Amino acid sequence: MQERTDLIVCEECDAVHRRPVLAHAEIARCLRCGAELERDTGSRLERLLPLTVASLIMFVIANSFPIVQIELQGLTSDTTLFGAVMVLSGEGMSLVAMLVLATTILFPLMQMLVLLYLLLPFAHDVHDGHRPGVKILLRLMQIVRPWGMVEVFLLGVLVALVKLSNMAAVVPGVALWAFGALTILLTVVVSFNPRYLWRILVSERRNSGEPVR
Description:
The chain is of the alpha+beta class. Helices cover about 55% and strands about 15% of the residues.
C-alpha cells in the first residue's frame, strides 16, 4: 500500500485534509474541530538546541544551590530541591516526595536530555533517523510532556515565601532565580511539538529512497 504524503490527518477528530503549503509562521487548522494540523517551524528548530542547552544549565544551577534561606530567632536554614524531597520522604510523606521528584526533576530532565539527543545532529546538518531509539524517545516525550510541572512548583514556592515572610526573614537563593529562568525556557522548549521532528526525519528517509516504518 502506497503512502499518501499529500494528505494529513487531524490528531483530534481524525478528519483527513490535503497537506497545505505554509508560508512563514503560518498555521493550518482542522476545518472540523479547529485543532492544529501543521505549522511552519521556520528557524525555530535551529533556536531550539541553544534553548535546550540553556535549560539544562539552569536546571543544574537550580538543583545545586539552595532555593531559599530562612532566618528565625538567630537560626538559619536552607535547602535544595532534592534536599526538600529527602525531608518529605523522611517525614513519612513518601508519595508526595515521589511526585515532587518526578514532576520537578525526573520528567523535565528527561525531556531536555531527549531533545538534546535528537537535536544535536541537526546542528551539524546531519538528519539521521537511524539513530538508536529515535521513535521510542519521541513517543516518550509525548507521554511525559504533561507531567513536567516546574512552573507549578515555582508558584507553590513563591506562595510559601509570601506567607513565611511575616514570620521570618526570607532570603531568595540562587536556585530560586534559576528556577524562574528554567520555567520560562521550558515553556518555550516544551511547546515545540515532537511530531515536527519526526516529520523531518521521515522526510529525510523518504528522500534517500529508504522505506519508512
